[in-house]
Amino acid sequence: MRDMKKIVVLTGAGMSVESGLKTFRDADGLWEEYPVAQVATHEGWEADPTLVTKFYNMLRGKCLNVKPNEGHRLVARLEEQYDVTVVTQNVDNLHEKAGSTKVIHLHGELMKVCSSCDVDDPRYIKQLGPDDYEVEPGTKAGDGSLLRPYIVFFGEAVPNISIAADEVQEADILIIIGTSLVVYPAAGLIHYARPGVPIYLIDPNPVSAGGRVKQIQKGASEGMKELFDLLMQ
Q1: DSSP assignment, residue 12?
Q2: Cα 69 off chain centre by
Q3: pTM above 0.85, yes or no
Q4: Residue 87: which H helix or E strand, with range?
Q5: In which element (H, E) is residue 202 found?
Q6: Of these four, 11, 31, 101, 119, which has the most CB atoms within 10 Å of its CB?
Q7: Residue ranges of the alpha helices (H) in 78-160?
């Protein structure tokens, strides 16, 4: 593994669009249907945990019915020749389903629930599956607090950001897919890439990311196909 070049792949919502998962910020995104303050903030959770629980039950149901797209699969296949770490802003598990073996989730994991008293206490983090993905409102964690989604709500700290930054600092190649680089702290990860490290950005929309970034202006699958062919030569 030490002889392999290290690739870090940073992915955002655009990575999963082709799998049928809506982004949050686009014109027809989820925030158009569900106000962010109600379902993705600590204040929203405190005000109506039942609403928040039902919202994430709904998202899990959608996630269970989608499959990785070719972009996810090609990212996983990079492991044939590279030491690959995926850093994702997405809460779905499509990278894992596609076969990626090292995935860092910055914003939490949809298919997990946790204590609302201590979100990161591993004793109370529970993995949900296809048969038990719906959490009954009012269900409690082992410490007696309400079970809440294992999601980093807006305004909360991003505990994995320093781990991700360390990975980017060690990267020989950085690939960014499906993110507009406007959401911090994740957008700041690009600045941890060492001078001279190639940076590729795959997104169908123009993204202002500086002169050292080479953009492939295509969707996740088409763009990854082009880049995969280049990197696997």
Answers
A1: -
A2: 15
A3: yes
A4: strand 83-88
A5: strand 199-202
A6: 11
A7: 94-98
Alpha-carbon gap, residue 153 to 45, rounded angstroms: 9
Q: Is 86 exposed, middle or buried (0-12, 13-18, 19+ CB in 10 A)?
A: buried
Specify the pLDDT at position 197.
96
Integer distance in angstroms from the first to the last C-alpha of the chain?
19
pLDDT for the residue numbered 33: 63
For the chain, residues with pLDDT lower than 50 are: 1, 25-32
Distance CA 92, CA 63 (A): 7
Angle between helices 70-77 and 220-231 (to 10 degrees): 20
In angstroms, the CA 74 to CA 56 distance is 28
Concerning whether 107 is annotated as a catalytic residue, the answer is yes
Residues belonging to the chain: 233
Active-site residue, from 42, 95, 107, 191: 107
